[in-house]
Design brief:
About 45% of the residues lie in helices and about 20% in strands. It is an alpha+beta fold and about 200 residues long. The strands form two sheets. The chain has a four-stranded antiparallel sheet with strand order 3-4-5-6. It has a two-stranded antiparallel ribbon with strand order 1-2. A hairpin with a 5-residue loop joins strand 1 and strand 2. Helix 2 packs antiparallel against helix 5. The radius of gyration is 28 Å and the shape is extended. The two termini are about 35 Å apart.
Length: about 200
Amino acid sequence: MNAVIEVPAGFRIDAKGRFVPEAQIKPIDIERSDLVEALIGGAQMLQKQMRSFKEQAFADVAAFIQLSAEQYGASLGGNKGNVTLFSFDGKYKIVRQSQDSIRFDERLQAAKALIDECIQSWSADSNDNLKALINDAFQVDKEGKISTGRVLGLRRLNIQDEKWQQAMQAISDSIIVTDSKNYIRFYERDKHGKYQAISLDFANI
């Protein structure tokens, strides 16, 4: 924690940490500094209010979900998960989402080997598009990372081959959740009946 520096009356601290008499500072520089500090103070206060509101919103939604479950004698295992709540008139809705960040371990390579075997055993002239799809899924980006979305998309293909199913299981087993983030978003229905997000992003207000 940084120690609070006491500034003598009639002085200001410059960017290098030196005490400078206000009499030696141009009035425009003082005005600029006062403006920046005032606006930053307001931004910090707003940030604190938004953080408090976010915590309260998550807590209230979780409490309501628990209450709703108890009405039917059900017990929720936790407060994670996606849920959408609507106002009675349908004008407003709140969406709570949980999003996991994932990566793959070494078993993904086993899955790729099994998929390659599948391709080799199938009729070569009828699977050119599938080959392109699979090769694209295992391409790495500029950072050397494989697109999780493309790899997981392979599991949606309706292929009953036993070795393919083993490969899909290997993909499932290779998934490691590295991070989990929760989001809460607020919407209002416009005059056309479409829900528009109530932006809490300062740049989009």
